[in-house]
Amino acid sequence: MPAEALPAADVVIIGFGWSGALIAEALSAAGLGVVVLERGPYRDTASDFPPGFAPDELRYAVRHDLVVPTAQNTITFRNRVAQTALPVRQWGSFLPASGAGGGGVHWNGQTWRFRPSDFVLRSHLATAHGHGVIPSDATIQDWGVTYAELEPFYDRFEYLAGISGRAGNLRGHRQEGGNPFEGPRQRDYPTPPMRMTLAPTRFAAAAQSLGYHPFPQPSANLSEPYTNPLGVVIGPCSYCGFCERFGCGNYSKASPQTVLMPVLRRRPNVALRTGAEVIEIARTPDGRHARGVRYVDADGIERYQRAELVILAAYTFENVRLLLLSGIGRPYDPRDGSGVVGRNYAYQTTASVQLFFDETRFNPFIGAGALGMVVDDLNADGRDHARLGFIGGAHLAAMQSGGRPIQSRPTRPGTPRWGGAWKRAVARDYLRNVRLGASGSSLSHRGAWLDLDPTYRDRHGRPLLRMTFDFHANDLRMIQHATDRLAEIGRTMGPAEMVVNQRHGPYSVVPYQSTHNVGGAVMGPDPTTSVVNPWLQSWDVANLFVVGASSFPQNPSYNPTGTVATLALHAANAILTRYLPAPGPLVPR
Amino acid sequence: MLGLLAALVAAAPDETRAETPAERGRYLATVGDCVACHTAPGGTPFAGGRAIETPFGPIIAPNLTPDRASGLGAWSDADFLRALKRGLRPDGARLYPACPYVYFSAVRDEDLLAIRAFLATLTPVANPARGAGFGFPFNLRPLMVFWDALYFRPAPFAADPGRSIAWNRGAYLVEGLGHCGACHGAKGALGADREPGVLGGGRVRGWFAPDLGGDPRAGLGGWSLDDIERYLATGSNGRALAAGPMAEVVENSTARLTMADIRAIALYLKQDAPLSQRSAAPSPVANDRIGAAIYADTCAACHRANGEGVPGLFPRLAGSAAVQSARPDTLITVVLHGGRAATTGAAPTGPAMPALGWRLDDASVAAVLTYIRSAWGNEAAPVNSEAVRRGR
Q1: How far is B314 from chain A (nearest CA, A)?
Q2: How many CB atoms lie within 10 A of CB A171?
Q3: DSSP character for B365?
């Protein structure tokens, strides 16, 4: 039965995470009527994660209360084409969010700008090292947008969110104590870096003695109170150590709730409907124009929201799946490399080193998701990576994100798994351990893609998304090199014992690694290798923009939120300044 | 798509035109915050239907739209003035003083008639809901004749020629349309102001509307003119955040006033408003270890260990008038049930205090409130468990 059409909106936005919220702010400020549809529940700071139960590790970290329930939506997974993909029934390797605020509620707050070379990766590598360094099956490509074009929007996001950090490159001038490898920024961070604890301080000293250039992690856990350009006040972090997988009860982690919602709530031309799961982007008979979206509301009733502009701003997986389910864009065919939707899925390549000390106490319960010191020397081209036999790189960090009681009980090798000896080991090592991490890039390649599963369906009868992915040999070589360097820094810190957790293939979807799934609806200047143009406008449907990390053609090592937000603001600006004055394709096909 | 583009072009206001009586009335209705009581939750503004809680029972605020049967459509100007200045309906029945006619008797006729002109421009809405759910004997409206005789002294506003124009304007707004004393004045057993004109603080819906006199701890003595102006204009001034009933007043009324009127109100409140008589200063309470421990666990992450809070986000407790008020009603309500600060265009954050009643028992709430009322140089009487129990 066709759903009854609701009154038309100027704009309908699918998903109320960072991307959807930022675009809703920009378009509604310009006077457009905006309807936002969010599949999960409404959430706000004091009502949904007050300090009284925000740090409930069982509820949020173990039972994943802020993550989309797999009974509602999940993916199927396989490593390679010869296997049959099976559904993920309990999230492990990554945690796709659901609900107002999206992943912006439960993120750590590590806020990066990508390097200028990241946006022109293929041409940069070809120019600097020759085409020969790029593996033949790698499908890495340029983004169609440059760092210089995005800089004002990075700046806008950092000042909306109040990011705490220290500049390393002010308008081309190197700044002591910041990241010397970052692209030029027009001004410093809005708030100073967080106060450092002992472990990151020792890590930085060790790294410096080895010739690296450590700097404080740019953080969305704010070092001091901050009033953003919209007049919203964000609080100072209390270093409680409950960021990743948790909502912040202290208004001190930048999120759509703490940065944007107070202003959006006051705007009569913005409507947020939660519990609204979009099932299709509806188009005109010729397929060239989106008419609106069909969704199932919280009561299970199908609705049809017409709109003149559709913004698809869900998580990477759902962006790709909704395109495939709606028949928009040609699906990727891995046999001949044709088609674009689902192409260039990429992940991240992580490893860690655990240090145990006999005497030094590090008080791991003092923490924040982005509290730490970082070394970026081994990223991108690093120290001549091409000569070492790989491309890409990693950043190395000592991040003190919180010693939470259930999941943070590291013990030395050989410790029994239970009993008195285990308890004594936990008691001894809890305060005296340090974890160092390496977060590395991920190539897009012919063997990694997203498509619709032929077997498994969701509760509405629609096919689940299927992921086919394994680590590329290049990325395993890269992370092995980075982890060896990380271990050198760790050894320099003088631990009594050290455990090196190298990353080996094949990729497993079970242990947590990173929620930085990217690609599948990538951006680019060429419609035969991208789903959206450099303004994130669909090549096929001019009044559809697809926003999120789904647009990354491959994945640099960094946490993606800063760039996801920047691309959303860049797209919103293009809608207001380019699209509305002359609706139609911004780049001719 | 043309519609989309047209939406981007805001119509420029025409500022050369003279203000009509209805436009002036709209502003004056904002000063009086008529919409707060005369609008049901989620209902049409001014169409009535909201149940106002009073110590005597609920009373339904009637419909002010020009509907002939259920609103003011059949009223004459004289009817309107008689109701607002004397508390008498056209049928001769007496109003209850939940409608602040006691204050409106000070308002000039031309201002009241401007409000009437504004109300006449509204779209008529049929909403016959009205009446009071009072118990005996308060349900007998004719008895209001005695109440009026005892407590009601209709008096037009008399300007003080020895004061500035701004001071007099402030006095006119505070004592008249603004009816600040309806909440901030102490009430006697029958709901009348104990000391008319004295804004010494009063209880309203589980909150304590603070003393607006010059007391340095519990009143405005510690507030500068700028503090008062910013509070009224934005709901937030770095010392305090408007919450509870005052959040509605700020959002619906004070934040929408002209800066000239806000300055006039601040001037009047700050300078020479009649000083309330405060009871003798309470003796300082020894810092209670239990209260301090609960504070460190539950409150300090936001309000900070030193009670200084975060401006615009977490109210300052050290030196706070709300914390040191004579009665702890506001503190008890906020801790048990939580509260949300006013949101205004200038201060949109609207942070909220989470409810803690589910995890703190009466004795714990009393202990932590006693602690904050005596820590950091604060001085106010202890809070006992029985008062907390009544607040649940």
Answers
A1: 8
A2: 9
A3: H
Give this complex's ipTM: 0.89
Residue B53 has pLDDT above 90, yes or no: no
Give me B70's structure tokens: 């259920």
CA distance A273 to A39: 8
Nearest-angstrom CA–CA distance, B194 and A2: 65
- In order of start, what are the domains of chain A with their CATH numbers? 5-154+196-218+252-579 (3.50.50.60)
Which residues of B touch chain A, with CB atoms under 8 Å apart? 1, 3-5, 7-8, 10, 298, 301-302, 310-314, 338, 340, 343, 345-356, 358-359
Distance, in Å, from the CA atom of A560 to the CA atom of A546, rounded to the nearest integer, reads 16
A298-341 pLDDT, tens per residue? 999 999 999 999 999 999 999 999 999 999 999 999 999 999 99
Computed on alpha carbons and rounded to an integer, the radius of gyration of chain A in Å comes to 23
Q: Residues A440, A393: contact at Cβ < 8 Å?
A: yes
| Residues 6 or more apart in contact with residue A424 via CB below 8 angstroms | none
Q: Looking at the partner chain, which of B4, B349, B355 has a beta carbon nearest the beta carbon of A262?
A: B349
Known catalytic membership, residue A472: no
> Nearest 10 degrees: CA dihedral of B152, B232, B81, B58?
-60
Contact B4 A580 (CB under 8 A): yes
Q: How far is CA A348 from the centre of its chain?
A: 10
Half-sphere exposure of A548 (CA within 13 A, CB side): 31
Residues of A in contact with B316 (CB under 8 A): none
Give me A240's structure tokens. Answer: 């409680």
Alpha-helical segments (H) within A30-129:
45-48, 57, 103-106, 121-129
Q: How far is B4 from chain A (nearest CA, A)?
A: 6
- Local structure of B276: helix, strand or coil: coil
Looking up tokens 């008020």 gives: B325
Q: Cβ of A235 and B314 within 8 Å?
A: yes
Using alpha carbons, select from A200, A196, A206, A209 the residue that is nearest to residue A494. A206
Q: What are phi and psi of B100, to 5 degrees?
A: -75, 55
Question: What is the spatial distance between Cα A44 and Cα A64, in angstroms, rounded to a whole number?
Answer: 17
Beta strands, E only, A446-543: 449-457, 463-468, 497-501
Q: Do B4 and A230 touch (CB under 8 A)?
A: no
Nearest chain A residue to B11 by CA: give it.
Answer: A31
Average pLDDT, chain B: 87
B2, B4, B334: best to mutate for the A interface, most A CBs within 10 A: B4
DSSP string for residues in A306-323 = EEEEEEE-S-HHHHHHHH
Which pLDDT belongs to residue B7?
A: 44
**pLDDT at site A139:** 97
